[in-house]
Specification:
This protein is α/β, with parallel strands linked by helices. The protein has three domains: about 70 residues, no CATH class; about 240 residues, Alpha-Beta Barrel (TIM Barrel), CATH 3.20.20.70; about 80 residues, no CATH class. The chain is globular. It starts with 7 loop residues before the first helix and ends with a helix. The structure holds iron/sulfur cluster. The site of iron/sulfur cluster has 10 residues, from loops.
Length: about 400
């Protein structure tokens, strides 16, 4: 009997560095970072560890502070107890649909969790509560399609997880095909970090044919490529993106601002120039969510804002077209400006997306503490709201709802 033939990317998945190999292969480095075999086991049990061979080649293993190492290598800080399991209140969006794995996030936008795993596991992931499991993956696709078909206001669907491209070609073809039968769905987005973790996924001709056949003028497939550091954009990642473009796929980027990874204007300039030069439209730069097991990556917002603004001074209009966003439970808030008057620091946030459409475009002005990471005072006292009226009250109510569910 002939065995099942695996594509190269599938074989590479089987060769990843896992928790068991961390000490066998990189014991000295792990010890230098204060890790023991037991600690690595505890971290892996809470948040799975996997590093692709491709990504491992990009890491400077002689440098314990290498930014790419920090992205994927376990850290004892992950066992800290602070932070939230579901910082953005995704359960609220799922409760709205009543369909496990389907979130109705904002009026026009739905999220379908198509896979629970990833090629490698980011140590700061905001879905740490679920990645590596299929606990929140959509298994009843029929119910999901039927919800989307009934809700004519949904005009774009984000396929996510985990990593959307961990789903098999068969599953992706079925999902894309069924969504294309729903007339009011235009753009279908796929969220992924596979172009940098496992670029060989995009050398699979069958996958490219599937994407091409569902992406056309007026009904575009868009891949949102997750890139955090310029060192991730090597020639193979560039090639993976070029193949996606060749299949008629529109490309956008998302990045997370993180301590020890990209927290300098110079690194951000290099990152966003690299993204733009690769033909990818810079879309979002996220404030790192203070999620349980990942709080050590978060920068105080004021500090982060200063770094981002300094970087923008050196970027072209295209390269700085991204928005600096805090994914608050009440909506996506753009950090618009920071002003210092006397001893007070004021910050202005604006709803780029809002769960309640009445607040779309509304601004909130708060006095802001230099060391705060978020709006809710997760790490300290609530901030004093100066202006923003109903929108501010809404943000507070949603934050309380989130706290009650975590
Ligand atoms: S690829 Fe995305 S979903 Fe997977 S671990 Fe990284 S951030 Fe989380």
């Amino acid at each position: 009997m002939r065995g099942v033939r695996h594509e190269r990317w599938q074989r590479e998945l089987g060769q990843r560095i896992t928790a068991k190999q961390v000490f066998r292969r990189h014991g000295e480095l792990a010890a230098a970072k204060g890790l023991t075999d037991g600690l690595v086991g505890m971290i892996d049990a809470a948040y799975p560890i996997a590093i692709t061979r491709h990504y491992a080649k990009r890491i400077d293993w002689s440098n314990p502070d290498d930014p790419l190492l920090r992205i994927v290598f376990p850290d004892a800080e992950e066992l800290r107890a602070d932070g939230f399991g579901d910082q953005s209140g995704e359960w609220i969006s799922t409760r709205k649909t009543g369909v496990p794995g389907l979130q109705h996030k904002y009026g026009p936008t739905a999220l379908l969790m198509v896979a629970g795993t990833c090629a490698a596991y980011c140590r700061y992931c905001f879905r740490r509560r679920v990645v590596g499991t299929e606990n929140e993956t959509a298994l009843d696709l029929g119910a999901a399609f039927s919800y989307i078909a009934r809700h004519r206001e949904i005009n774009n669907v984000l396929l996510t997880g985990g990593d959307a491209f961990m789903a098999s070609n068969f599953r992706l073809a079925e999902i894309l095909g069924r969504l294309r039968q729903i007339g009011h769905v235009g753009v279908i987005r796929l969220g992924t970090k596979m172009p940098v973790y496992l670029p060989s996924r995009f050398s699979d001709p069958e996958l490219l044919r599937i994407l091409e056949s569902h992406s056309s003028a007026g009904k575009r497939v868009c891949v949102v490529s997750h890139i955090d550091h310029p060192g991730e954009l090597d020639s193979q990642a560039q090639e993976a993106h070029a193949k996606l473009m060749g299949a008629g796929v529109h490309l956008r980027s998302q990045s997370v601002l993180m301590r020890g990874v990209n927290d300098s204007p110079e690194t951000l300039v290099e990152l966003f120039r690299g993204i733009t030069d690769a033909g990818i439209a810079p879309h979002y730069l996220f404030q790192c969510r203070p999620v349980k097991g990942g709080t050590h990556f978060a920068l105080p917002l004021i500090e982060g804002y200063g770094i981002v603004e300094e970087a923008k001074r050196h970027l072209s209009g295209l390269a700085k077209s991204f928005r600096f966003i805090m994914s608050h439970v009440s909506g996506k808030m753009e950090m618009v400006s920071v002003e210092r008057r006397g001893r007070d620091t004021f910050a202005v946030f604006k709803y780029h997306q809002a769960r309640d459409p009445r607040f779309l475009g509304s601004s909130i002005l708060v006095t802001y503490r230099e060391k705060s990471f978020w709006l809710d005072g997760v790490f300290g006292q609530p901030h004093q709201i100066i202006a923003g009226g109903e929108a501010a009250q809404y943000a507070i109510t949603q934050a309380r709802l989130l706290a009650s569910g975590n």
